[in-house]
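[Meeting: bench + compute handoff]

Bench side (C.D.) handed over the final construct sequence. Compute side (W.E.) agreed to return the predicted structure before the next meeting so the bench team could plan truncations. Sequence as handed over:
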Amino acid sequence: MKIAQFSSIGKAEKVIESKEISNLSDPKENEVLIDVLACPINPADILTIEGAYGVKPELPARLGAECVGKVKKVGSSVKAFKEGDIVLPLDRENWVQQKIVSENNLILLPNNIDIHQLSMLKVNPATAYLMLNKYVNLEKGDWIIQDAANSGVGQCIIRLAKMRGIKTVNIVRRKELSNELKNIGADIVIEDSEDLADEVSHLTQGANIKLAIDAVGGDIVLRLGNCLVDEATILNYGLLSGKNIEITSYQTVFKRLVLTGFWLSPWLQTMTREEIFKMYNYLAELIAKKSLYVPIEKTYSLDDIKNAVKHSSEYNRSGKIILTPNN
């Protein structure tokens, strides 16, 4: 079978490769063998290859934070899954044609939903859902502000916030994205500027914004902080700029802003299986209704992994890049 692997840290398209390895053996009694149907390429994957992510892999390393698969064979004691089931693995290393997963690390999914959309269920929708629900008490009519609004997480935030009646200020790098984001529920779409706080105050009629969600890092965090009410929260989940977060002493001392970070992995480790199951089934239902949807620009096979990661690293994409290991 084929896997995607890298043996050294470096430019993603230069060090990643498709490799043929031996086929997997039968699953043990509490394991499930699955065919991987689709898996997205996320920014964290690229950062991992380039050595800029929070976790340093032991080389050679496989990649892929998420995928969707179909059960091929189950172990003798497995009762919750059967051949043909569509499943979400909660572990990593998913850029492979097949993998063996403990039954406790699998979530059963509906079998009548777009596979490409389901492949993005684990990370972006869950990240958006938890950031909107677990840090600040948001009520209908409240405002939030986010950067990287056209990202997969950003679009999920817009859609989930709209369902709850929460209003969003969305910062983008390209003005032409405005109509696209407004069509999915964005209230305000603007470009970053030195006068961001004044512009946001004018457009929201002086709303008290108590949550900023940041995926960029660097000095944009300063400007986000200036848009917030006292004692608001800045929630960082990415570093797209490659620069450390900037925040002033005035913002931390006198405005008493709280800066914290979000990483999905610790949340999944501390949530009960029932909580995880409930969250992912709720989000899967939204995908089935097309209430949650992320545009897809192109799909690639594992054989074309170098072009896939290169394409994924481009800034002017209009959608996600998806790997289809079994075509």
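W.E. noted at the follow-up: Residues 109 and 281 are 7 Å apart (CA to CA). C.D. will use this when planning the next construct.
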